[in-house]
Amino acid sequence: MEAVPARARVYVSCVAVGALICLAPLPTVQTPWWPVLLLAVLYAGCEQAAARWRFAGTFYPVLLAGAFLLPPPAAALVALPGALLSPVEQRPRRLRRVWRAAQLVVAVWVAARVHWALGGRDAVAAPDFPFALLPAGAAVLAFCLVLSLLDGGILALAERAPVRRAWRGLFPRSLAPVAVHGLAGLMMAVLWRSPYGPVAALLVLLPMCVSWWVFAQYHRERAAHQATIRALVQAVDIKDEYTRGHSERVGQASMMIARELGMDEGRIEVLRFAGILHDVGKLGVPTRLLRKDGPLTPEERRVIELHPEYGHEMVRGISFLGEARAAVLHHHERIDGSGYPYGLVGNQIPESARVVAVADAFDAMTSTRSYSRARPVPVALEELRRCAGTHFDPRMVEAFVRALGRYGWHPAVTAEEPRPPRPRAAVAGRPGVPR
């Protein structure tokens, strides 16, 4: 959103106007203002703490408690100061603040309207469980739905995401965490209206803050993992200039295969790591061999074929990689047993390695290399199918073909300006597989 298209600015402006319309009835709202002020200050403090802990997200319990306690315009006002004052790292900062504030104002207003329309105010004032859960649950669903709809719009307009994919998965992914925040918000609202008062309601936030802090530590650790992987990949790219961007593209293709096979999100992430790091062992191969013009001698080829073992030695102590380490070691094995380093056959080859083998070969064939020009995607797919059952696992090949048919091939990372290919002999018998 650094260079924001005009249509995205118009979209943000329209949402901001909608937020102002939601707030317009405030002068006529008959409600004590001290709860609004207290919740607004509390939410702003939570946003500042989130920025300090470098946690990506918004502390929704306070906003949803406001939706359960206050009339819709007053509840919407709770979100405004915190959103406008929250730190923003990326530019344009002012536009981002306006967008976030407008989005939250509209979402909270809708949640409060749904809650009040279903009799939630009375259910909170005189707790009637499980009836109180019904309007609260509907309000949480409405809140999550509005956020997802607005987020999808900004992705389509500002980030230029394809329209058919801009909204895909937003609502299901956000529903579970927002539902948990909604339960905490409901507990806050019930205690607030109880004889124990607002002080007891604020105690609900303590376990939420602890869990929030734990998640923040998890995200920091994850960021450290990503930095480690980026450093390794950049080192390989610097050493082997003709495969720049290859690792990231293989990671993307591996994810597509894993998703098509129905793997869970944890394994999909591990397969992405496997694709990204599959060639890290090239750091142990002399640069002169990686950049050599002309055919390799048998001795030189044997040295290059050691790179899977070098890579495995480099990453085997990195515990978070899981089965990605096996893919680094075995991604040049073949189904018929003619691969290296150990000549494994069929299902002896780890599943992660069979996924990466297909992704690696496909990107090698569709990228311009020092020894070959890029082939069109249909030609590369036909070659993969021809070699299925001998070089590649047919199940992985067909999964990749289906994924490409559904989503197309739009690699997020591409090599720098391609250089004209110079004559170099490819490894005999390895269709499109880089040495």
TrEMBL record:
Keywords: Membrane, Transmembrane, Transmembrane helix. Coiled coil: none annotated. InterPro entries: Cyclic_di-GMP/3'3'-cGAMP_PDE, HD/PDEase_dom, HD_domain, HD_GYP_dom, HDIG_dom. The keyword Transmembrane applies. CDD domains: HDc. PROSITE patterns: HD, HD_GYP. It holds the Pfam family HD_5. Residues 413-435 are annotated as: Disordered. Residues 424-435 have a biased composition (Low complexity). The chain crosses the membrane at residues 6-26, 59-86, 98-118, 138-158, 170-192, 198-216. This is Integral membrane protein.
